[in-house]
């Protein structure tokens, strides 16, 4: 998965058009001092390449960090829909079925983003919504490869 704030200034966002990569790199750098500009750059990238999953990741990550949870949720839901479409999955995550192997690419991004939505729901004080997503992840990713057990532990701590 993409790490938004690594030790280097260049992030590998995968195979994206150069213009989109440049916008994402600029957005990451801008985030350190001008969060509004970072959001603008990420949204430019999304307008340029609406199928580029890393853009959704950047948007939901920065808005979660900032506590803009409605914006984080909207970005994550958009990314989830795009990833499901790219993976050939039902648009409703409640209808996803487990695969013997953890998917790669868009499918893995979809599972990771479902986990992110569960975390966002916890931050929104919506534990039932978070638990519903976590229950699905327990079936879809029983090994916890996308990191949902950490969010589940947070949910259990909330009570």
**Apparent shape:** globular
* Proportion of residues in extended strands: under 5%
Number of helices: 7
State the order of secondary-structure elements, H for helix, E for strand.
HHHHHHH
Give a short summary of the structure:
Helix content is 66%, strand content 0%.
Q: Could you give the topology of this structure?
A:
Layout: H1 18-31, H2 35-48, H3 53-66, H4 69-87, H5 105-123, H6 127-140, H7 148-158
Written overview of the protein:
- The chain is mainly alpha-helical.
- The chain is built from 7 helices and no strands.
- It has helices spanning 18-31, 35-48, 53-66, 69-87, 105-123, 127-140, 148-158.
- α4 (69-87) runs antiparallel to α5 (105-123) and α5 (105-123) runs parallel beside α7 (148-158).
- The longest helix has 19 residues, at 69-87.
- Mean pLDDT is 93; it is low at 1-8.
């Amino acid at each position: 998965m993409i790490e938004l704030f690594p030790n280097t200034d260049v992030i590998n966002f995968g195979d994206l058009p150069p213009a989109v990569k440049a916008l994402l790199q600029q957005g990451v750098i801008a985030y350190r001092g001008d969060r509004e500009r970072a959001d603008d750059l990420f949204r430019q990238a999304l307008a340029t390449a609406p199928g580029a999953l890393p853009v959704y990741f950047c948007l939901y990550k920065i808005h979660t960090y900032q506590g803009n949870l409605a914006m984080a949720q909207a970005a994550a839901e958009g990314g989830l829909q795009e990833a499901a479409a790219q993976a050939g999955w039902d648009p409703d995550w409640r209808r996803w079925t487990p695969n013997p192997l953890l998917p790669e690419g868009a499918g893995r991004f979809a599972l990771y983003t479902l986990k992110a939505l569960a975390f966002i729901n916890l931050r929104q004080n919506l534990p039932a919504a978070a638990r519903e997503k976590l229950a699905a992840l327990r079936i879809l990713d029983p090994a916890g490869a996308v990191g949902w057990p950490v969010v589940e532990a947070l949910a259990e701590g909330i009570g």
